[in-house]
Structures are given as C-alpha cells and as structure tokens.
Design brief:
The protein contains 8 helices and 15 strands. By secondary structure, the chain is of the alpha+beta class. The chain folds into 2 domains: 176 residues, Fructose-1,6-Bisphosphatase, subunit A, domain 1 (Fructose-1,6-Bisphosphatase, Chain A, domain 1, 2-Layer Sandwich), CATH 3.30.540; 125 residues, 3-Layer(aba) Sandwich (D-Maltodextrin-Binding Protein, domain 2). The longest helix is centred in the N-terminal third of the chain and has 23 residues. Bound molecules: 2,5-anhydro-1,6-di-O-phosphono-D-glucitol and manganese (II) ion (2 copies).
C-alpha cells in the first residue's frame, strides 16, 4: 500500500503548479495581444510535432517552478526528449518526480479554444542522496501520489486527486487564487456523449466501428443517438465528460499504431482522476494504470470516461 503524500508536500506542489498556471492563464486570456503567445516556435519536439510558442513557454515555466520548489528531484515533459534531473540539492534530496504535458491541445491555442496542463507525481524509487534515474520516471500509474490538470477554459480550473477522491478549484482572476468550487467530483456512471476524432473511423478496428454505430443508433440504453463532442484538447474533452458523463476514445490507428496519447503524462494522470471519480480508463483491453512503462514518451490506446460506457466499448472490442 503506497503512503499518501503529506499535506505539507502537497501544499508545496500545488503552489509550484499554481504560480505558472495562473500566469499562463492570464497570458492566454490576452493571447491575441501578446507577441509571445500565439504561433509556432519553429522547432519540432521529440515526437516530430511542431512546437507552439506556448508549448515552450509553459514547459519552461513549469520546469522552473518544480526546480525551485525544493522537493522535486527530476521532471519529464512532452517537450523534452529526455528526463531532466535537477542539479545539486534538489536533484539529490528531492523526494518526487513530476511528469507533465505543459500545454495540452496545442492545435487549439491560436483559435481561442480550451487548452490545459496535465501533471503526474511519483515518489522516487532511487535512494535520496543519489541522482534520480530513468526507473524513477517509468513507474506504473498505480504508483502516482498526486495527479491532475489545469484547464484554461471559459474559466480556469485546477482539478486533482491524491487518491482520496477528486476536487476542483476555480481560479478567481481578481484574487489570482484557486478557490474550491467542485468538491468530491463524481463522474456519472453512464452518459450520452462520445468523443473521438471520427475522421479516423474507417481506419479503426471493427469492434470500435460497431461501438460507434451503437452510439449513433437508437439501440443504446437511451433509445436515442448519443451526442458526438470532440474539442481536440484531451483535457477539455475529459473535463466535460467528467462532469456530464461520457466516453473519450483515442484508439490505435495506422498513423499512430499505439494510439496518439502519451501514457505517462496524458493517459495516467487522467486515468487516476477518472477512477477516483468513479469512472474507468483502459486501452480497450486492460487497465491503463497497470501498464509498466518502458519509455518516456510511450503511447497507449485510450478509452476513458463513465464506467458503463467504457465497459460497453470494451465488450464491443472483445
Ligand atoms: P498535445 O497538444 O499535447 O500534443 O496533445 C494533443 C492530443 C490531445 O490533446 C487531443 O485530444 C489529441 O491529441 C488530438 O489529436 P487529433 O488531432 O488526432 O484528433
Ligand atoms: Mn497533450
Ligand atoms: Mn502538449
């Protein structure tokens, strides 16, 4: 049984996340007016994706915050090929590693649509006093001690779990503080929203094609076609489904044979939140949190959302 994170360390990490998140949120609100927010950076990241200016800005801001908080020994993020062990004291003595997607939904930055930050925190495995190593970063999702996201949506929210349910905080932009607004969030066990990039449907396995036909038919439990909703920012699609009930699917497709989403800093943190809110997260066949990762930017097919909907989709795949 893993030991929950102490409230002191939790407060330190929430502070480390809130500062850059609030400052990013303020920048995002004025995006069209600020030279440094919109547009491409001009580089590709390790996954061959064009980095947006905000991807890089967010990455640097969170790295600085984690490094200076004193209890994080290493980080890994979507925007860095390798993990980064912090030099000197923090690297040697910090107890935690953080894996994060600094800016989720990059393609939505320039078009004023919701985007987010996703994070996942583990205790290091390597002994304190030594430098952290790759094994500290490659732990199964069941070992997370703190995970969550910031959604820069119509309001900015911080949603997280430490293994004792899920709470949501809304940013008061006047006070520049996150205030508890959504206590003990529960994901409805059933829903009538499905979210996937249906442009890919002809490339998907037959079981999934049939499940989507079931969603669109009157044969499902509601007797009416479900609503299709796809924002294209995982964190925003997930948040809506967390509140309203629904399923989000990013399957294996020929262009992304392992799925598109990254296990360590997209799938795992949201999987834990889903489970803590009463939902499920699987690859369509097995529980996401039990996958033993083998590389930092590893991908996984992803079926996450309301319990009964994920179970139904899995029955179609079986
Ligand atoms: P990121 O912007 O961090 O690279 O993540 C994008 C992810 C996810 O947010 C989104 O749901 C999905 O990619 C969209 O992919 P498609 O454009 O293939 O639908
Ligand atoms: Mn992402
Ligand atoms: Mn990203």
């Amino acid at each position: 049984m893993k030991e929950p994170i102490s409230s002191k360390d939790l407060a330190t990490l929430i502070q480390a996340i809130s500062e850059p998140a609030i400052s990013l949120s303020l920048d995002i609100r004025r995006a069209g007016l600020l030279e440094h927010v919109l547009g491409q950076q001009g580089n590709l990241n390790v996954q061959g994706e064009a980095q947006q200016k905000l991807d890089v800005l967010a990455d640097e801001a969170f790295i600085r915050a984690f490094q200076s908080c004193g209890i994080v020994c290493a980080i890994a993020s979507e925007e860095n090929d390798d993990y980064l062990a912090f030099p000197s004291d923090a690297g040697l003595n910090g107890e935690y590693v953080v894996l994060f997607d600094p800016l989720d939904g990059s393609s939505n930055i320039d078009v004023n649509v919701s985007i987010g930050t996703i994070f996942s925190v583990y205790r290091r495995i390597s002994p304190k006093g030594t430098m952290p190593d790759l094994n500290d970063m490659l732990q199964p999702g069941t070992e997370q001690v703190f995970a969550g996201y910031v959604l820069y949506g119509s309001s900015t929210m911080l949603v997280y779990t430490t293994g004792n349910g899920v709470d949501g905080y809304t940013l008061d932009p006047v006070k520049e503080q996150f205030m508890l607004s959504h206590e003990t969030m529960r994901m409805p066990e059933n829903g009538r929203i499905y979210s996937m990039n249906e442009g890919n449907i002809q490339e998907c396995e037959q079981g999934l094609v049939r499940y989507i036909q079931y969603c669109q038919s009157r044969e499902n439990q509601t007797g009416m076609p479900y609503s299709g909703r796809y924002i294209g920012s995982l964190v925003a699609d997930f948040h809506r489904n967390l509140i309203k009930g629904g399923i989000y699917i990013y399957p294996e497709v020929p262009a992304s044979p392992q799925g598109r989403l990254r296990l360590l800093y997209e799938c795992n943190p949201l999987a834990w939140i889903a489970e803590q809110a009463g939902g499920l997260a699987t690859t369509g066949r097995k529980r996401i949190l039990e996958i033993s990762p083998t590389s930092l930017h590893q991908r996984a097919p992803y079926y996450v959302g309301s319990k009964w909907m994920v179970e139904k989709a899995m029955a179609f795949l079986a």
